[in-house]
Design a protein that fits this description.
Number of strands: 13
Distance between the termini: 83 Å
Radius of gyration: 23 Å
Helix content: 25-40%
Number of helices: 13
Strand content: 5-15%
Structural class: alpha/beta
Length: 387
Amino acid sequence: MRELRQSGLHFASNMKEQKMTAPTAKPWITSIHAYVPGRAKAAGNVRVIKLSSNENAFGPSPKATAAMAATANGTHRYPDGRSQLLRAAIAAHHGLDVDRVVCGTGSDDILYLLALAYAGPGDEVLYSRHGFMVYPLAAERVGATPIEVADSDYTADVDALLGAVTERTKLLYLANPNNPTGTMINRAEVERLHAGLPPHVILVLDAAYAEYVDTADYEDGIALAAKHENVITTRTFSKIYGLAAARVGWAYGPKAIIDTLDRIRAPFNVTSAAQAGAVEALADTDWIENCRAENTRLRSLFMTEIAAMGNAGLRAVPSAANFVLVTFPSDGRHNAEAAYTYLATRGVLTRWLPDQGLGHAIRVSIGTEDETRTAIDTLRAYIEETD
């Protein structure tokens, strides 16, 4: 004991002689720009229409909210750490091997875990320009180098992505449909992308908006992940299922990758309420079909009305998701930042993304019919006032 005390005193004495410094984060962490969520509040007492975060304006199935409420008396107990009932429901719904499904705190969680497991300093992580901003963040968090690859008319360019692959490439993230542009590439292009990748590169197909796609020529990643050792697909209950606040997502892929993610995910990562709600949300197919149909109808309405503003230089980028990217002309007559501000002061909250190279555009989520028509009318008013 005396020797330990003497050792401690000697250490303290040495420390006094040295210059003390504050704790220092890893150098690559200090350069990260934190994720900025969509705006949720407007100034004053105006009615707020939140079209900034691609949420399902119709909300979750009432059966899901009832199931979540029923878990309230059990909050003193930890949730099922393996999300067994939810994983079984997902597997049954999609025809999957349950042992190749892992759940996370939203699909973002899984995207981060993939980088943590498979990339680090000296490695490269590819993603398409104007892609989901979590991809470079996932790379930067682990010290890897994010590589932004040029797209084509706001759409992922398979040839450009393949041309950017090197021996240092470890992950290629592809959102399909893409956020924030809404564009998608078809099944043949996804398959061509995978076929051109070396086996050491993991293709991460982020299908957060898969349930909104209403075309037959779509690849959500499940078929590819079932056959190949370097493909994984991620999904979320935050979008069409209306459980954004519950934070629950999942992934399907080869057993080796799923087992790896299972080792490093947080214990009890999905709450009991989230698991219960997701199971019921998945089962209520009538609710989801209605949400999909309404989104398709109102997205078409929104895009038609934007096309009618074409004389003002506005363009609605074709979207397969529950939002539309609206671009503005470069002549300065109308501009995205001014439109974003004009809409916000009137309670219509959209997303302006200059940090993603989209300073000339705003992203507008599809809301209810009243919300969507109000957004159209307010945007038209901005055009008329600035003509």
